[in-house]
Specification:
The complex is a heterodimer of chains A (about 290) and B (about 260).
Chain A: H1 2-31, H2 38-56, H3 60-87, H4 91-113, H5 124-128, E1 130-132, E2 138-140, H6 141-163, H7 165-175, H8 177-182, H9 187-212, H10 219-235, H11 240-260, H12 265-279
Antiparallel strand pairs in A: 1-2
Chain B: E1 17-26, E2 29-39, E3 44-49, H1 55-63, E4 70-75, E5 78-79, H2 85-91, E6 93-96, H3 108-117, H4 126-132, H5 135-138, H6 149-161, E7 167-171, H7 179-186, H8 189-194, E8 198-203, H9 206-212, E9 215-220, E10 223-228, H10 235-243, H11 247-250
Parallel strand pairs in B: 3-8, 3-9, 6-7, 7-8
Antiparallel strand pairs in B: 1-2, 1-4, 4-5, 9-10
Helix pairs in contact in B: 3-6
The chains are: A mainly alpha (about 290), B alpha/beta (about 260).
Chain lengths: ~290, ~260
Amino acid sequence: MGWVNAIIQGILTGGLYALFACGLSLMFGVMKVVNLAHGDLAVVAAYIGIGVITVTKVPFLWSVPIVVVIMAVLGYVLQRSLLQAAISRGELTTLIVTFGLSIVIENALLQFFTANNRGIGVGSSLISASFSLGSGLQIAWLNVVIFLLAVVVLLSLQFFLSASKYGRLIRAVSDDREAAQLAGADYRHVFGIAAALAFSTVALAGIAYGMTTVISPTSGTDTILLFAFAAVVIGGLGSLWGTLIGGIILGVAQQIGAQINISYELLAGYIVFLAVLVIRPQGITGRRTQS
Amino acid sequence: MSTSATGAPAQQGAPLLDVRDLVVYHGQLRALSGVSLRVFPGEVYAIIGANGAGKSTLLRTIAGLHHPTEGSIVYDGADVTGMRPEKRATAGISMVPENRRLFPSLTLEENLRVGATFARSGPWTIERVYDVFPWMRDRRRQRTAQLSGGEQQSVAIGRALVANPRVLLLDELSLGLAPVIVQRIYEMMPQILSSGVTVLLVEQDVSQALRVATRLHCLLEGHTTLEGPPASFTAEQVEAGYFGMGEQAASAGSKPEGSEA
């Protein structure tokens, strides 16, 4: 029963990893920005969530759209200012700038929130509730909810990109920036929209992570960024559904590793990650873009 | 005078596009050295020249993709020299770029819809483009990568037309296409002109340019060698202007400024 449990838990964890990964994948797919501050921004979102709940005393569910909107606005502003300035100076610059941003965020969080761990208070009912699937199989409702959230986020993103006016412009700009300009599209604004979209998913990822476990200022690069990278690489760069597949494979690998020996959890995930890099560097889905 | 001796429309009234003494550098390379031209409404203004003469640079600078170090671009009476390319597009300067530059991951219809997103109001719609190219209707859900070169060029023209431009810049329409296909694409020029669009085109294929142009402008290494109605030049003068032999012989035609005054 232990193996079945490991696989089911791994699949559900994969949903969370897909949430981590889809914003990273979107930013790279559209703007060719490898956002090294991705994980830290998710942690920022979680802290904003904690802050919103403690200051305004709104119920947890109300805080989610507030955090998403705040992060979306932050995404647009950051893209139009810092990231745009970096993009116009070359691809390597964006890497250095987001790396710097990551350090700044981490230290700012340490300064203001200390290194203590925190969790997002949801009210204990959802956090701890679970249901049983036969002998010894306990599934946490929270993990199911997060998995479904990831699927809904990916479906919405796909629908937005394929059917809306700005979705079409985002794909056009990521295909050919100059040709889009000739059609009258200000690519900087379109980039801003894409960043707002990516940051909204980052907000959800941060909140979901803060619910499943405790966060600290360093969780961003320690965990979220690394898992997001692994999921993106396993699934295939620039592919939305690839992030879900990659997330699930990473989650299952980790759980199976933990089943063998609890200390192998992370190791097993990275072994699969390296194996995919060697055997199939373009990822499982293996296409540059998928819409 | 209302028409020139050759029957071409006269350059009179206010120019739609007035380019003055344009100097453009690509890094260290001086691509354009003081090129001037004036395009009047209803003209088909053809820029010819050999590879590397600066034709595409000139067109891309007018579209806003390159920035001149000297000179100015006046469109419809307003200086647009410092204006961003997307602003020029929405103001009515549309370009069909060299090599088509369609969006490969978008369908044919999505390509046209991107072109129509920021369109001015005017006669061109996606439906009208389908009327001009009926084959597109059946294949509108295909990715443009699956289309042939000539078909892609038609889509690129359609994408520019649905923006309802006042000036249409065509960069090397014939590049990489079979002569028959080129012929067919140029056959739709009257339909474009009858909708009130003014055309400024760059063409390496001189015979094709001479067939459609009401005015000819020849570039050589970033300089103007010929400017005037095509019929005012002999074949030898055009050849000299194109290849750069005996430039003086060509100046008998006309010079950029004051030729029609």
